[in-house]
Structure to design on (354 residues):
């Protein structure tokens, strides 16, 4: 049975976090003389940036919690999802001793963050159905395995990992299962967000970078038990989400209808692109996608990639990843961008493709 104390690093359990001035005082004051800020102003004509931001982003969490239907104490906000990944590894994995499991092909930062922290990475490839290979996972897990990273919808395949497989892990693995739902807004299946109350070892990651269209703000979300969130807050930098980012996220949360409209447009364009791409002779297949991108299998990926680059269109060559041989990952663009892409692919077929 999962017990958080059994996997938490001792130095983290005993850690007294840095106490910032804005954590010591909560509320609104007339005069702030507690944080050694520049009381006069800032180098640009604004009086909102000379003060430190709310270190726990309480206003954002309150509004976000209403949309996500979770309590504020179950929400972590960070400098992109990458901060959450790094913090989870630092919280639960002893350097040089413990390991994490990743499921290639998958998001590359899980491995990078683990290696930065001197934590061993075990790779268990998805099976040919792009699902969890549970027998292989069982063999890979040992007493020092602390985290399993599951990306669903998966990057770069766009596929959903079947929920019963994830639930099997949650019920049998005595470590933390991180389900990265960065692309869940584009999926037809439901988020596992409401399951955090059922599974104490479940962490859900989402982001404002994709469906919300706020990649430049670098704000990621993690949802978990209040106990795990409190540990993450102990480790994070004091002011990890800036004032402008918090204000713009609050504004964005009032525009959910606009986000839903963008999602609808991108999903329609996804259907069109899948149909059109499958008509080209050099395309061997397009994987079904529950995300805002497509993994396109082609018999000449490098040649096609170079051609698109030469014509000022940037896609991602994923040919070297397991199960992605010969594949390019193409984000769903605007309707006009998609038309240009298809026009270029038609030119490629006529001119370069053998």
């Amino acid at each position: 049975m999962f017990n958080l104390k059994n996997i938490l690093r001792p130095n983290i359990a005993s850690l007294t976090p840095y106490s910032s001035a804005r954590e010591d005082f909560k509320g609104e004051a007339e005069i702030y003389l507690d944080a050694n800020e520049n009381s006069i102003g800032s180098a640009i004509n604004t009086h909102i940036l000379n003060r430190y931001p709310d270190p726990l982003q309480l206003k954002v969490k309150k509004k976000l919690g209403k949309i996500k239907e979770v309590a504020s104490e179950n929400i972590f906000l960070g400098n992109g999802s990458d901060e959450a990944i790094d913090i989870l590894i630092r919280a639960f994995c002893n350097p040089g001793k413990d390991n994490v499991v990743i499921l290639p092909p998958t998001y590359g930062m899980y491995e990078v963050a683990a290696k930065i922290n001197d934590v061993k990475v075990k790779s268990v490839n998805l099976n040919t159905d792009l699902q969890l290979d549970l027998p292989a996972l069982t063999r890979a897990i040992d007493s020092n395995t602390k985290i399993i990273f599951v990306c669903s919808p998966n990057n770069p395949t766009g596929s959903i990992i079947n929920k019963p497989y994830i639930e099997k892990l949650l019920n049998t693995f005595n470590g933390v299962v991180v389900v990265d739902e960065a692309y869940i807004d584009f999926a037809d299946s439901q988020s596992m967000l409401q399951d955090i109350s059922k599974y104490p070892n479940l962490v859900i990651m989402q982001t404002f970078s994709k469906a919300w269209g706020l990649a430049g703000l670098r704000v990621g979300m993690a949802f978990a038990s209040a106990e795990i969130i409190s540990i993450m807050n102990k480790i994070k930098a004091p002011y990890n989400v800036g004032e402008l980012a918090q204000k713009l996220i609050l504004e964005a949360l009032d525009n959910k209808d606009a986000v839903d409209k963008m999602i609808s447009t991108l999903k329609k364009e996804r259907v069109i692109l899948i149909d059109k791409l499958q008509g080209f002779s050099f395309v061997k297949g397009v994987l079904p996608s529950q995300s805002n991108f497509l993994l396109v299998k082609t018999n000449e990926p490098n040649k096609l990639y170079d051609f698109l680059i030469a014509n000022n269109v940037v896609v991602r060559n994923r040919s070297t990843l397991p199960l992605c041989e010969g594949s390019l990952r193409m984000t769903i663009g605007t309707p006009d961008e998609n038309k240009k892409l298809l026009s270029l692919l038609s030119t490629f077929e006529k001119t370069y493709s053998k």
About this structure: The chain has two domains: 4-254, 257-351. The longest strand covers residues 145-151. The mean pLDDT is 95. The first helix runs from residue 4 to 7.
